C-alpha cells in the first residue's frame, strides 16, 4: 500500500523529524529545506491575500526559523512586516540562526500589543516540536490572536495543535490557511485539529520521497489511491453469483435500520442480498423490499434458522446489528445471531446493537472473531465495547502517555483492532479505519450532513456489499467509508439516510470514469 499511495501517507511530527534528518543525510541542506518551507508559505500568503500589514510571530525552534524566511520574503515584496520573536537566537538550530540573521527588518519581542496594527497574522510560534502545554507570553499572545478575529496563516500547524493527535495543548488559534510541508500529519485530519487548520496546503520543499521507505509508516489519509486497484468491478463475463450474496439480519422493531443496510449492500453491487428476519416482522420486510429477498426465522428458533440459512456457502458476507434489538430477550438473540455469523468464519460486519449487546462481556465477542470481520462503532458503542482503552489507568499512565492518550482517536482505533482481531471503523466526522496489524486510515471527505439517523446503517450495507464481492475487510471498510462521504457531499444539505444508497450510482460512475477509463 505504501508504494501505491505515498502521497496519502501521514507522518507524525516525530516521523516528520526523521524524514527531515534522512533528507539531510541524503544530501539536502537543512538551510535550503527551511528556505523552501518559508518561501512556500510566503507564496501561499501572497496568492491568497493582497498586500496587508503582517505580524509574523516567530518561536524558539525551526518553526520560528520558517517565520524569519516568511517575514523576509514578504518584506522583499514590499509588504509592511512586523517580526515578533520569542526565544533565544544563539540556541536555535544553525539553519534557523542563519535565516534569522538574514532578516533585514526590525525585531520586536512577542507581545499582544503588536496586534493593534496588524491586519494578518503569521503563526510560526510552534510546529512539530511542541512538547507541552503553552504557557506565559505565548499563551497570552495566542489567546489575544484568537480574540482579535484577525486572519491567521499557520506554519505547519496552528501553534498549540498536536500534529500527532489533533488535540490542543493549552491554547491555539483558528487558522484560515495552514501550510504544511512534504506530507500531512494525523493532527491535521483528526478533530479538533481539522477544524482549526482552515484550508490545508501541503508544500513540496524538496524532501526526496525515498526517505519514506526507511520509516515503516502505517497511516494514510483515505483516498481511492489506496484501494481502487482492488475495487470489485463487475466482470464482463460475470453473473450475479460472482458478485456475492450478502445476508443482513433484521430485528423486530426498528425494521428501517436493516432495510437501509440491505439497500446499501445492493447499491454497492452485491449480487444478491437476503434479509433474514424473525417471523413477527417478516411481513413488514416482505412488503417493503423488492430486489432484496426476505428469509423467515421462525419464533423461538431464530438462531437455528439463521444458522441453517448460512449452511449455504454462497452466503459469503453477513451484517448484524442495525435494528437487531437490545430490549429484554432481544439482546440475547442479537448476541446469538452475531456469534452464529462469526462461527461461519465468513466475512462479517458487526454494527450498532451487535456491538452494544456485548458491552458487559466484550471478550466473548472478541474470542469469537476468527475470520474476516469489520466492526463499525460510533464513539458511544466504542466506549461500551472497549472500556479498557478509554479508561484504563495503565493506558493513561504509561511513559508513552501522549501516544496512548485516550484523546488519540488513531491510537484508540488501533488498540481496539488489535484487542478484538477485527478491522475497526471508529466513526465520526474523522472516521478512523484500523486493522489488527496496525495499518490505519483517517477519512477526511465526510460532510456534517451525514450526522443523521440511519446513515451508519447504510455504511454497514456498503461494507457488507463490498465484502460479498470479495474485497478484503480493511480495503472494503476504507472504500465504503470514502463512498459514503462522497455520496454525502453529492447530496449535501437536506440529506436523509434513505437518499444515500440511491445516490451511490452517480458517485460510482464518477469514480469509475476517474480510475478506470
Ligand atoms: N519537517 C520538515 O521537513 C521541516 C520542518 N521545518 C519546520 O520545523 C518545525 C519543527 O521545528 P522544531 O523541531 O525545532 O520544533 P518547533 O515547533 O519549532 O518548537 C520547538 C521549540 O519550542 C520549544 N517548545 C516546545 N513546546 C513548548 C511550549 N509549550 N512552550 C514553550 N516552548 C516550547 C522547544 O523547547 P524545548 O522543548 O526544547 O524546551 C523548542 O525550543 C516544523 O514545524 C516546521 O515548521 C522546516 O523548517 C523545514 C523542514
Ligand atoms: N459531523 C460529521 N461529519 C461527517 N460525518 C459524520 C459526522 N457525524 C457522523 N458522521 C458519520 O455518519 C454516520 C453515522 O453513523 P451512526 O452514528 O452509526 O448513525 P446511525 O446509527 O443513526 O446510522 C457515520 O458514518 C459517521 O462517520
Ligand atoms: K505554527
Automatic annotation (TrEMBL):
Annotated catalysed reactions: (6R)-NADPHX = (6S)-NADPHX; (6R)-NADHX = (6S)-NADHX; (6S)-NADPHX + ADP = AMP + phosphate + NADPH + H(+); (6S)-NADHX + ADP = AMP + phosphate + NADH + H(+)
NCBIfam families, alphabetized: yjeF_cterm (TIGR00196), yjeF_nterm (TIGR00197)
Classification lineage: Bacteria, Pseudomonadati, Pseudomonadota, Gammaproteobacteria, Oceanospirillales
InterPro entries found in the cross-reference section: Carbohydrate_kinase_pred_CS, CARKD, Nnr, Ribokinase-like, YjeF_N_dom, YjeF_N_dom_sf
Residues binding K(+): 63, 123, 159
Cofactor binding, note field: Binds 1 potassium ion per subunit.
CDD domains: YXKO-related
EC number: 4.2.1.136, 5.1.99.6
Any GO BP annotation: nicotinamide nucleotide metabolic process
Domain YjeF C-terminal: 223-511
Taxonomic source organism: Marinomonas rhizomae
Sequence ranges assigned to domain YjeF N-terminal in this UniProt record: 16-213
Subunit description: Homotetramer.
GO function terms (MF aspect): ADP-dependent NAD(P)H-hydrate dehydratase activity; ATP binding; metal ion binding; NAD(P)HX epimerase activity
Family statement: In the C-terminal section; belongs to the NnrD/CARKD family. Belongs to the NnrE/AIBP family.
HAMAP family, A to Z: NADHX_dehydratase, NADHX_epimerase
Designated name of the protein: Bifunctional NAD(P)H-hydrate repair enzyme
Keywords annotated in UniProt: ATP-binding, Isomerase, Lyase, Metal-binding, Multifunctional enzyme, NAD, NADP, Nucleotide-binding, Potassium
Residue sites binding AMP per the record: 427-431, 456
Top-rank taxon, per record: Bacteria
Gene field: nnrE
Residues at which (6S)-NADPHX binds: 62-66, 127-133, 156, 257, 323, 378, 457
Cofactor(s) listed in the protein's UniProt record: K(+); Mg(2+)
UniProt function note: Catalyzes the dehydration of the S-form of NAD(P)HX at the expense of ADP, which is converted to AMP. Together with NAD(P)HX epimerase, which catalyzes the epimerization of the S- and R-forms, the enzyme allows the repair of both epimers of NAD(P)HX, a damaged form of NAD(P)H that is a result of enzymatic or heat-dependent hydration. Bifunctional enzyme that catalyzes the epimerization of the S- and R-forms of NAD(P)HX and the dehydration of the S-form of NAD(P)HX at the expense of ADP, which is converted to AMP. This allows the repair of both epimers of NAD(P)HX, a damaged form of NAD(P)H that is a result of enzymatic or heat-dependent hydration.
Amino acid at each position: 500500500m505504501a508504494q501505491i499511495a505515498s502521497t496519502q501517507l501521514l507522518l507524525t511530527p516525530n516521523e516528520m523529524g526523521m524524514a527531515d534528518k534522512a533528507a539531510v543525510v541524503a544530501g539536502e541542506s537543512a538551510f535550503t529545506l527551511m528556505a523552501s518551507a518559508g518561501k512556500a508559505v510566503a507564496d501561499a500568503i501572497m496568492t491568497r491575500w493582497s498586500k496587508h500589514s503582517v505580524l509574523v510571530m516567530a518561536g524558539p525552534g525551526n518553526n520560528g526559523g520558517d517565520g524569519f524566511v516568511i517575514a523576509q520574503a514578504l518584506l522583499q515584496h514590499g509588504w509592511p512586516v512586523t517580526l515578533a520573536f520569542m526565544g533565544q537566537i544563539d540556541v536555535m538550530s544553525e539553519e534557523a540562526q542563519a535565516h534569522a540573521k538574514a532578516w533585514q527588518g526590525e525585531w520586536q519581542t512577542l507581545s499582544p500589543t503588536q496586534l493593534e496594527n496588524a491586519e494578518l497574522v503569521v503563526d510560526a510560534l510552534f510546529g512539530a516540536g511542541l512538547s507541552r502545554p503553552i504557557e506565559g507570553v505565548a499563551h497570552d499572545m495566542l489567546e489575544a490572536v484568537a480574540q482579535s478575529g484577525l486572519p491567521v496563516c499557520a506554519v505547519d500547524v496552528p501553534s498549540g495543535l498536536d500534529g500527532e493527535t489533533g488535540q490542543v495543548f493549552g491554547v491555539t488559534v483558528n487558522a484560515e490557511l495552514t501550510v504544511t510541508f512534504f506530507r500531512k500529519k494525523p493532527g491535521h485530519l483528526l478533530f479538533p485539529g481539522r477544524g482549526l487548520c482552515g484550508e490545508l496546503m501541503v508544500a513540496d520543499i524538496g524532501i526526496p520521497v525515498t526517505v519514506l521507505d526507511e520509516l515503516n509508516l502505517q497511516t494514510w489519509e483515505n483516498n481511492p489511491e489506496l484501494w481502487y486497484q482492488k475495487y470489485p468491478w463487475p466482470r464482463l463475463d460475470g453473473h450475479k453469483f460472482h458478485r456475492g450474496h450478502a445476508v443482513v439480519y433484521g430485528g423486530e422493531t426498528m425494521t428501517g435500520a436493516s432495510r437501509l443496510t440491505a439497500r446499501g449492500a445492493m447499491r454497492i453491487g452485491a449480487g444478491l442480498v437476503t434479509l433474514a428476519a424473525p417471523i413477527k416482522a417478516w411481513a413488514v420486510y416482505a412488503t417493503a423490499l423488492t430486489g432484496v429477498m426476505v428469509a423467515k426465522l421462525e419464533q423461538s428458533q431464530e438462531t437455528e434458522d439463521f444458522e441453517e440459512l448460512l449452511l449455504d456457502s454462497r452466503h459469503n458476507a453477513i451484517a448484524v446489528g442495525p435494528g437487531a434489538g437490545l430490549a429484554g430477550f432481544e439482546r440475547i438473540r442479537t448476541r446469538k445471531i452475531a456469534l452464529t455469523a462469526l462461527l461461519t468464519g465468513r466475512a462479517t460486519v458487526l454494527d450498532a446493537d451487535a456491538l452494544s449487546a456485548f458491552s458487559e462481556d466484550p471478550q466473548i465477542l472478541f474470542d469469537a472473531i476468527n475470520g474476516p470481520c469489520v466492526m463499525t462503532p460510533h464513539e458511544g458503542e466504542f466506549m461500551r465495547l472497549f472500556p479498557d482503552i478509554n479508561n484504563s489507568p495503565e493506558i493513561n499512565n504509561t511513559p508513552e502517555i501522549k501516544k496512548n492518550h485516550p484523546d488519540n482517536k488513531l491510537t484508540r482505533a488501533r488498540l481496539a483492532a488489535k484487542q478484538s482481531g477485527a478491522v475497526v471503523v471508529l466513526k465520526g466526522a474523522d472516521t478512523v479505519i484500523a486493522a489488527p496489524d496496525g495499518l490505519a486510515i483517517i477519512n477526511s471527505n465526510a460532510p456534517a450532513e451525514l450526522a443523521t439517523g440511519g446513515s451508519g446503517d447504510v455504511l454497514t450495507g456498503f461494507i457488507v456489499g463490498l465484502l460479498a464481492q470479495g474485497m478484503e475487510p480493511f480495503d472494503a471498510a476504507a472504500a465504503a467509508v470514502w463512498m459514503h462521504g462522497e455520496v454525502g457531499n453529492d447530496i449535501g444539505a437536506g440529506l436523509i439516510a434513505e437518499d444515500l444508497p440511491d445516490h451511490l450510482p452517480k458517485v460510482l460512475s464518477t469514480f469509475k470514469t476517474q480510475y478506470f477509463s
